[in-house]
Write a structure and sequence with these properties.
Number of helices: 8
Number of strands: 11
Shape: globular
CATH architecture: 3-Layer(aba) Sandwich
Helix content: 40-55%
Largest sheet: 7 strands, parallel
Number of domains: 1
CATH superfamily: NAD(P)-binding Rossmann-like Domain
Strand order of the largest sheet: 3-2-1-4-6-7-11
Length: 271
């Protein structure tokens, strides 16, 4: 029997590549997005069905998961991929700006996870895969709010694993480094003060490093392949780092004294 995976944020980037990759590997795919009517490529694949889902709206989450279960019989894996990157100068960020980042990256992920647990508990098992970031364990300049959301996802997931294990539900965390997606472009939200130029030099230096990293990042298909590996793993391994600089900075943070690691980050940004 073919397995079924549900993926949020499947209209672009990692989500889209994962949907196509899992379909290629013989899975049923429930590809969710806010406006499926705009999607043309995914709906051509007979193994993929599209569902409307906005992670900030509970009613769309409940409807999408219920519809996917009805269509496919069960959902074996749920991938929390929907999210966006907010960065910039914290002083300039309004409450609304901060709340928007948390509402999608944290509360949206929690809403999906809660409904997935209900479904998987009843069917006696499944996997929930959270798309976090190397930024869930390492922090860079100008990403304070984004890091806050990803660190929240890491802690939330690590704790939650203990209470759902009794239902044969596994939790996995994917930790991408720099990936060529809309994270650095269309889906990015950036904030800087319009009442002072005190941060301009700092922002210019950090922006250059961040954009260079995005330009040289790995292709999102590499993350899709890592998701596939996690989805098919029966081990208790939780975290799956993928791509530079995750493969360098995570071991470095573990091994170096704290002050030495901070100096390493500062020197890479020339700050």
């Amino acid at each position: 029997m073919k397995k079924t995976i549900l993926i949020t944020g499947a209209s672009t980037g990692i989500g889209r590549d994962a949907a196509l990759y899992f379909a290629e590997k013989g899975w049923n795919v429930a590809a969710t997005m806010r406006t499926p009517s705009r999607e043309t490529e995914l709906q051509k694949n007979s193994s993929i069905k599209l569902y409307e889902l906005d992670v900030t709206k509970n009613e769309t989450i409940e409807t999408a998961l219920a519809s996917a279960k009805k269509d496919f019989g069960r959902i074996d894996v749920v991938v929390n991929n929907a999210g966006f990157g907010a960065d910039g100068v914290f002083e300039s960020m309004s409450d609304e700006f901060i709340e928007s980042q948390f509402n999608t990256n944290v509360f949206g992920l929690m809403r999906i996870t809660r409904e997935a647990i209900k479904l998987m508990r009843e069917q006696n098992g499944g996997k929930i895969i959270q798309i976090a970031s190397v930024g869930g364990r390492v922090a860079f300049p100008l990403y304070s709010i984004y890091h806050a959301t990803k660190w929240a996802v890491e802690g939330f997931t690590e704790s939650l694993q203990y209470e759902v294990a009794q239902f044969n539900i596994q939790l996995k965390i994917i930790e991408p480094g720099a990936i060529k997606t809309d994270f650095y472009g269309r889906s990015r939200a950036f904030s800087t003060p319009d009442y002072t130029d005190a941060y301009d030099n700092f922002v210019e230096k950090c922006e250059k490093v961040s954009q260079d990293a995005g330009d040289k990042g790995a292709d999102s298909i590499e993350v899709a392949k890592t998701i596939f590996k996690a989805a098919n793993s029966n081990s208790n391994k939780m975290r799956y780092p993928i791509a530079y600089p995750a493969n360098i900075l995570l071991p470095a943070k573990r091994l170096l004294p704290e002050t030495a690691f901070y100096s390493l980050v500062k020197s890479s940004y020339k700050i």
